[in-house]
Description:
Elements: H1 2-34, H2 36-40, H3 105-114, E1 163-173, E2 176-188, E3 192-201, E4 205-216, E5 219-228, E6 232-238, E7 243-247, E8 250-254, E9 260-261, H4 264-275, E10 285-291, E11 296-311, E12 314-324, E13 332-338, E14 344-351, E15 357-366
Parallel strand pairs: 9-10
Antiparallel strand pairs: 1-2, 1-15, 2-3, 3-4, 4-5, 5-6, 6-7, 7-8, 10-11, 11-12, 12-13, 13-14, 14-15
Amino acid sequence: MQKRVLLPLTAGVLAAHGWLLWQLPAWTGAAAAAAPVEAAAPAFMTRSIAPPAPVAAAPAPAPAATPVPAPQPKPKPKPKPKPKPVAAPAPLAPAAAPAEEEVPAAAQESRAEAAPGEPAVPEPPAVQAPAAEPVEVAAAEAPPSDAAAAAEVPASVQLPPPARLSFDVSGQAKRFNYHASAELLWQHDGRHYALRQQIKAFLIGTRAQTSSGQVTAAGLVPQRFTDLGRSEKSAELDFAAGQARFTPAAAPAAIGPGAQDRLSVFFQLAALVAAAPERYPPGSEIGFTTVGSNDAERWTFRVHDSETLELPVGAVPALRIERLPRHAGDQQGTLWLAPGLGYLPARIRLTQANGDFADLRLQAHAAP
């Protein structure tokens, strides 16, 4: 039933659409006749729109001209480290001037590049500080120096006056007691010195020792030591090389400033004590490297109290100084220095490990 109703309705709708389509050309023609002017114009107009003229791009900024670097100054050598300031009698600069902050070398160069037109400011000349005052050095440790230009011995040591000393000698050698005579000749001119000790004994013969060298502000600087017995032995002290060389051939021994030989050591002791007795109270010790005819060893002396000696020359006040042995077989020695004779030795006693000894007692004193 519904289909029957819809079919006529659908047919009517289609007929209406067809009629409208049929009448459409007539309507468009009537419209064209009514407006002839407008028919001349095309139904559609196409406009060509010219694109806007391209805007000229702003010219790229020209690259900045690279500045030509200023010629680099030659690298300055690094300044040597300045010595520590030494106190001067007067200040070199006003006290109110502020201390400039130290600028590294690299920063100084960059400043020079930043302102190439600035004239370079020269550095102030280095001011040489006044020499430091000499410091007194113990004579036993002072380095040797040439005193050829010195007319007198400096006050750091006080050498005894030149003299010829005669001794009465008693001793023992291989359990044989003997008596002998000895002579000690001491000479110096304030620049050089010479020492000779000689002992003569019946049936024993003669033995002599010599020492020679320079006199400096530190005292004696021995250069040659000889020991004359049945044969001659000697030692050359070369302080520049720091060694003593021996004849006959033996291994060189190391020496340092202040070294003495077995004869000069007694007079070096006398020169030190005479210059400043207060420096060497009882119990104080003085040490030297002491060179013999074929070796060098350390000799240490201890100061004792003064005592009065009864000698062939008479009663003599003297300061006793003892050499300390380093081991059981070492030689022992005792020295008595007489202040009344310029601290020349008034008595010398040497004792060997086997009991042999020699005791030298002053018998006479005279000018050389």
